[in-house]
Amino acid sequence: MIPRHQAVILVLLLVVSVIMGVGLWNLREGAHKRLLQGQSTAPTQAPEVAPAEQATLMVASDDDDSVAARAFTLPLPHNPQARARAILGKLFDLYATPESPHPAPGGAASVMQVFLMPASSTPISSGASSPGSQLAIVNLTSAFAASHPSGIESESLTILSVCATLHANLPAVTQVRFLVDGQLRATLAGHADLTRTYLTEQTVPTEGVHP
User: Fold this and answer.
1) Are residues 171 and 102 in the same domain?
2) What pTM did the predictor assign?
């Protein structure tokens, strides 16, 4: 025989267990309904993607030390600084391919940022900036600079192609300066001067655009 007081306790425990079970079931059902409601009200459209536009890349060639224009279609952001970075990223991707006419490792990740600001009105080397002209500051990675082929021709072609590409797609850019990891650097890979401001009017070739 179970003592009366123990039987009462057992019944109370069973009742409490049933009540707790019902409560947990209700909580589970409520959470499931909220999850379904959240799924039905969540946005289903895909994230906005930059529209594809034509860009002109001034591609360097080591064979004849030239820079020639080539047209590409690629997604370009509306923001001018982001647009400039995307265009230079495509240029650097070309240089990183095995069949590149101007090999330079690193690809698009080599361009950390591109900043645009009003160009200096002080004459630099030759000529002065016109009203509305912009200075582009191209911030490269130290990994790109460290792995870039050393040589005055190779380094100069990279610098000139970057300047010409910026001007071809953002005509207001008339001056370009370079940083490496956000810092001033004497040269790209031992030769091309990175302490100077480059004038884009001196880097634009006369050849036509090739698809």
Assistant:
1) yes
2) 0.72
